[in-house]
Fold each of these.
Amino acid sequence: MSIKVAIAGIAGRMGRTLAEQVQRVDDLELIGGVERAGSPWLGQSIATGLSLSGATGSITQDLAALPAFDVLLDFTTTQSTLVHLETCLTRRAAMVIGTTGFMPNETMKIKQASKQITIVHAHNYSVGLTLLLDLVQQTSAKVGAEADVEILEWHHNQKVDAPSGTAYALLDAVKAGRQDAVGPSVHGREGLVGARPKGEIGLHAVRGGDIIGEHQVLFAMNGERIELTHRAASRANFAEGALRAARWGFASGAPGLFDMRDVLGLDRAASDGS
Ligand code: NAD
């Protein structure tokens, strides 16, 4: 029996990638997609609109108008995800939320809804990055204050913010692993900065070309160093992780709010720093 999935934001960058990947696997069945009011794809079949041969289902504005589905994959906007949340509550369907940028009061609504349905909500669905964060925290805990830590990230020349959100998540992972008080983080270095103060954590953003995203955490000690690196080659990594989350959420069947650490079975106590 395949898991019936619907995709909100199906004509968007992530939506299309998700639809393509669902079509490639046998255990998931795409039953339809949702798009915003005014979208040129409304009313079209997924097969024609997204040039996905073999796909069934159509693209509609109203999630409630779609046939029954087990899991909604939602990579849209905060406002529309909250509207879709209501429909999933009514239908008792699970949700995999990829949308980012929720305000605290909106996150509370998601948390409230998770008392009744299964919700996976992750800021980053990349399996590799989730594992990198875990490895960084574990490594940080073991090497302790002996290591000088530097976080490096590379992105394309169109990225407007620096350092990346993921670089900050890696910084949090380094801090979570350390028992001792860690020093300030510094962004790049220039001029006569003097010897490196103990406990300082350096963050460095490199921008150029079409680099999708690369993150590295360096733990430099006397006589040796550890470099933990993740390289993204395409958006497919987010979609792969989201599909994994859909399968996990469907199989779990239990109401609750989960993230990629739960999906990958990682130790929750470790991520909480407890
Ligand atoms: P995008 O703009 O390419 O796609 C968003 C799609 O949602 C568009 O097709 C848009 O028409 C549609 N949409 C907007 N309002 C809608 C509504 N009311 N109903 C249905 N569809 C609606 O953006 P994207 O790059 O695909 O990213 C979408 C979201 O996912 C963003 O919040 C982004 O930050 C997030 N994202 C998260 C991850 C992750 O791993 N968690 C990865 C990539 C992107």
Amino acid sequence: MSTINYSEKIPNNVNLGEDRTLQRALEGWQPNFINWWDDVGPEGSTNHEVYLRTAVSVDPQGWAQFGHVKMRDYRWGIFLNPGDANREIHFGDHKGEKAWQDVPGEHRANLRRIIVTQGDTEPASVEQQRHLGLTAPSMYDLRNLFQINVEEGRHLWAMVYLLHKHFGRDGREEAEALLQRTSGDENNPRILGAFNERTPDWLAFFMFTYFTDRDGKFQLSALAESAFDPLARTTKFMLTEEAHHMFVGESGVSRVIARTAQVMNELKTDDPQKVRAAGAIDLGTIQRYLNFHYSVTIDLFGADQSSNAAIFYSSGLKGRYEEGKRTDDHVLKGQTYKVLEVKDGQLVEKDVPMLNALNEVLRDDFIKDSVAGVGRWNKVLEKAGIPTRLVVPHKAFNRQIGALAGIKMSPEGRVVNDMEWAAKRDEWLPSAEDFAFVASLMGRVVEPGKFAGWISPPVMGINRQPVDFEYVRFG
Ligand code: BYC
């Protein structure tokens, strides 16, 4: 069951061949997916042969095989982690009952909504990143971008499989709609805010894969606890792929910082204009990009108080991050959690029912995890003897969702008036000029082993290959 059958048109480990109707329906969706990939997937990549990893089994050891693959011929398929016939629901009102192999009628609408929202983010990110290949800082980075793109494509397949198999005609319609919404489209945008933002350059890409793919980690972990077993099993496998995406973000930003620190030391300056003139990205710009991507990403956790979140948890659809490792009653009735609100111009904490605050609980788990990586970026500065430190802005900074939406707040968490916001906005968030400067650095460098001047080379290559390996063969 764990080995993937690659002899079929749609590679899978779910015995797709035994369900002809489902197989035909998915084979009908497949050409639409390819058309979507051709239309809005990675620009100009069709004939490239890319050193990609492809899943060959879902076993923890040896699930990946590396080799040069033509982008369009990547074998997107359906892979679920092995099932456990005795698995029990371990949280919410159904705690102790057997996990569901099919969708209970009363939870159908909510489960469909969760799966569609998750599925919508995957093609959205490919669309957001589609032009980046044209300005890659190296062949190594180009390969990582393409790896992420094909895996997001596969994550879309994962959700489409669930929709086709378990939601009948509605599910098939939703699967079509996933290919029709488009990131940033005025009339038919993607569902969640961050997925309609632009990813205009590689600094934005690294910040996105550090912060926004980390939302993926936390949301997928919560779904991996689901009472709906097929969702739990597919998201578990998706998580193994997500780790590399966050690595690309963390190491990418780290390499940008390393190069900036090197230039600052060579020139003995912390003047942003001098750093820019030397072709590196000043730390102020990096901080503003961080502020933007962090705030837009924490909005993805939804409103701080949400009756949806309470229903999702109590009915067993979506757990907490590492639900199984927590030692409370896993029902959470009568418990409280602190959320923020603004009262008389001040931020204050208030206790609310924990079940309604589960979006906030997950957001706080995410915050802890992201702060740890920012600490690792600061180590690069510390090692280089540069006193500046990067920080994540206050949770209430630049929020568009929930009780803190629209409140004007400094990155340190001070409520500010409209005038101060207008005066300081460009110190706190990337300005048009920052974007123009970063864009000016984005030239294409794709000779093996060569790197653009604004980023340091990585410490090692992919899959133990050397850094100057030919990761992409241009056809
Ligand atoms: N933008 O009661 P609320 C990933 C909507 S990333 C726009 O708080 P709920 C990846 C909300 O939909 C992981 N709208 O909602 C990363 C609701 O609308 P309706 C993605 C937003 O349901 C990188 C209304 O506001 N997975 O995998 O408690 C690359 C009321 O809000 C936003 C998931 O998100 C927003 N930011 O929570 C590739 C998991 N936030 O229904 C991939 C599945 C909220 O009233 N999704 N709204 O029209 C969920 O669990 C929930 O839908 C949410 C929202 C946590 C997102």
